[in-house]
Design goal:
mainly alpha; 5 helices
């Protein structure tokens, strides 16, 4: 894939999601507190918020070729029918992307007020004794 091919960015995004899935499978020092989830969900919200536009723009090469009468379907298939199927599926994908965006934004909003109750956790206690 050349450096000028926009699909390379989708490949990089997919690789980033794969890496996230791999590293977030268990808790660790950098993935244990509600603030970590809030940050992760915020990044996920940003990513899924761009999916609808990415879905729209991913079909541009097909539509450009179709509008110029140059789409050919294997086995002498019907280009009009296949492009109609593509457009219908694109609409479904756009609606799903919009619904996913809304749901992930609700997740982000829900985690916003969450924090860690440090009561009784030694590493979070003050070094100085409390005076009552």
């Amino acid at each position: 894939m050349s450096d000028n091919n926009p699909a390379r960015h989708l490949s990089a995004a997919a690789e980033g999601i794969r890496a996230f899935n791999h590293t977030s499978g268990s808790v660790g020092d950098d993935w244990i507190y509600p603030s970590h989830a809030y940050s992760g969900i915020g990044n996920l919200s940003y990513l899924v918020g761009m999916l609808e536009q990415a879905v729209q723009q991913s079909t541009r090469p097909v539509m450009y070729t179709y509008e110029h009468g140059r789409v050919r379907i294997d086995g002498n298939g019907d280009a009009d029918a296949k492009v109609s199927q593509l457009v219908a599926a694109q609409r479904d994908a756009e609606a799903a992307a919009a619904a996913l965006t809304a749901a992930v934004q609700r997740m982000h909003n829900a985690t916003s007020p969450m924090g860690l109750d440090t009561t009784g956790i030694p590493e979070f206690e003050d070094d100085e004794p409390h005076i009552n």
